[in-house]
Structures are given as C-alpha cells and as structure tokens.
Design a protein that fits this description.
Helices cover 41% and strands 17% of the residues. It has twelve helices and nine strands. The strands form two sheets. A five-stranded parallel beta sheet has the order 2-3-1-4-5, sandwiched between helices. α2 crosses α8. 37% of the residues are buried.
Length: 337
C-alpha cells in the first residue's frame, strides 16, 4: 500500500528566520548573558531529513506554538531571550542538518540553557533508510547533504544511473545519521517509518500534552511483519501467546474490544507474561525517573499488530496510569483510522 511521505508539504506557513551571522565558538556562548528561567514550553524539533519535521512543526503550530524553522543554533540563545518577554507563548524550533556547521555547538548550548532553568524538550524524528529513500524518490527532492557525499566508484559506473542515484542518497542519509547521532542520544525519538502524516500529527500533539517534568511511559503495539519501531526502549514479543486471529468471531475485532480481551484474560500464560512485564517495568521505573528521562517507550509486538499486542499495550497503560503519565500508540491500528 502506497502511503504519502511523512514530511509531505502541509499548506500552512511557518516563519523562517532571515539569514544572519553570529559567533559560533563556545566561548561566545559562555560569555553571553544568561537566559532567565522561563515557565513556557520550548520544543526543539530535529531529526533525519525526510522523517517528517515539517509535519511535526505544523502540528505544533496548529496546537498554538509559535514555530520557527531552520533556526541556526548560534541564534537560539538570543531568540529565547527575546521570547522570554512573551510568557504566554509556547515556542517550537526546528534545527537540523541544514545548519550542519553549527551542530557541534548545539549540545553544549542545550546543556547550558537547561542549567539556567530553560525547559527544552528535544524531539528527534527518525525513519528507516528504506522509508527515507522511498519518500525522497516520491517527492523528487534532493537530500540536503547530497553535495557533501564523496563521489567514488558508484559515480563512475554509468550502466545503471538509477542504482548510482540510490547509492548516493543512501550515503547522504548515513552521513546525516553520523552528524546527528549525539543529538539523537539526548532526545525523545519518534520512528515515522510506518506513519502517515495524520498519525504523526496526532502523536506529536499527544507528546506535547504529556510533556512536563514527569516521566511518560509510552506503550506502543506493532506488527513484527512491518518491522520493530526504531524509537523503542524495550521490545516484548507476545507472538508465543494464543492468537485470537484463529477464533472466527474474533478475527475482525481488535485488542481494544471486550470479546478479545475476555479471550486473552482467560489464557493463563497471558496473565503470567503481563505480570512479568509489569514487574520488570515497576522495578526499573524509579531508575529511569532518577535518570531524568522524559519518555520511556515500551513496544509490544505480535504478528499483525491487531489483537495480542494491542491488548497488552492497553492493559499495561491502565496498570501504570496511577504510577506515571502514560500514552498509548497502536502503530498498525492508527494507520487504518
């Protein structure tokens, strides 16, 4: 089934800063006046080109954020200082590899700003290489780093120009992954490989609503046949459990429907695995909270992402609701809605 690219253009206007020059060395940042602590939300959207950053930014704009696309990291401190006067305005900023020369200064700057009391939530959008290649092919847009990829043997072979172009695109994507690897480590990762733009918009809005100083547990169901989510911190495989798919009257239903839930609750091994997963998460949840994690994504997979994994995600979210903020995602079911 062909799906539109997650970062397909959305007909809304996002403010873009005019070109500007500023000092890029760390000493200049260190000597700059501190940004006063700010009570409002600041969301930094970043990630791999083609993963859906424009869709995410437009979703935040629709949610009431003031959005700026492609802000050079050197201007981030000055921009936040300017915005401090508008305490009622939430801010979303997109920073990516288009500012590649400034990226080494971004992580130290984020640490400084957080130390000064600025609450910044970093959202990193990612996708599989195959999904990114497909999206770039569909939109016929060049990758921002295409010109930076060394032209080697693949550029000399002329018998298969299509293969050469794909190889160059894959090389550009891998180069981008290397440049953004450290930023990805400190961000909340969202895998958009299987997401439609509408899904991504909903997921981004849910993340913002759940944001805050509290750890948020994300329970995500998925189908193994479509791949493991790239944003998962833990993956549990429930394919060994009895499958409601083989019960005729349960086939068209999902794990959110009571007949399926009743069937699974009646299986002793289902209750045993649920209890073991719950105990594991409960044991380590305090450690993740102490580690200042914003999100912990627990992915539960079955064959089709319709019955068992959905039931597990729903049930675990219900059991942890009193202990942590929770979000529920059904990757395959949400794609149908």
């Amino acid at each position: 089934m062909n799906t539109p690219p997650a970062d397909a253009p959305v007909p809304r206007e996002v403010e873009r800063p005019v070109a500007a020059t500023s000092a890029t060395d760390a000493d200049a940042d260190a000597d700059a006046p501190r940004v006063p602590p700010s009570p409002r939300e600041v969301v930094l959207v970043t990630g791999i080109s083609g993963s859906g950053k424009s869709v995410a930014l437009h979703a935040l704009e629709d949610a009431g954020f003031f959005c700026v696309d492609n802000l050079p990291p050197e201007l981030l401190r000055d921009f936040l200082r300017l915005e401090h006067a508008r305490l009622d305005r939430r801010v979303a900023i997109a920073v990516d590899v288009r500012s590649a020369g400034s990226l080494p200064h971004l992580l130290p700057l984020l640490q400084q700003l957080r130390g000064e009391g600025v609450a910044i939530q970093v959202v990193f959008l990612d996708a599989s290489t195959d999904a990114l290649v497909r999206r770039f092919s569909e939109t016929r847009r060049p990758h921002p780093l295409s010109a930076d990829v060394p032209q080697g043997e693949s550029a000399r072979r002329k018998e298969d120009q299509g293969h050469d172009n794909r190889r160059a695109l894959v090389d550009a994507i891998e180069l981008e992954r290397e440049l953004l690897a450290e930023l990805r480590e400190v961000a909340t990762v969202v895998d958009t490989s299987q997401l439609r733009p509408a899904q991504l918009r909903v997921w981004v809005r849910d993340m913002v609503r759940a944001g805050g100083n509290r750890l948020t547990l994300v329970f995500e169901s998925f189908a193994f046949k479509y791949g493991v989510p790239l944003d998962a911190d833990y993956v549990f495989d429930v394919r060994v459990l009895p499958n409601p798919h083989y019960v005729r009257e349960l086939q068209p239903l999902t794990g959110r429907d009571e007949p399926v839930a009743d069937y699974l609750r009646a299986q002793p091994e289902v209750g045993e695995m649920l209890a073991q997963i719950e105990a594991f998460l409960a044991r380590w949840l305090p450690a993740f909270e102490d580690d200042q994690r914003s999100y912990l994504t627990v992915a539960i997979g079955c064959t089709g992402g319709q019955h068992r994994s959905v039931y597990f995600a729903q049930t675990l979210a219900e059991r942890f609701r009193a202990r942590a903020a929770t979000l529920i995602r059904h990757r395959e079911l949400d794609a149908r809605d």
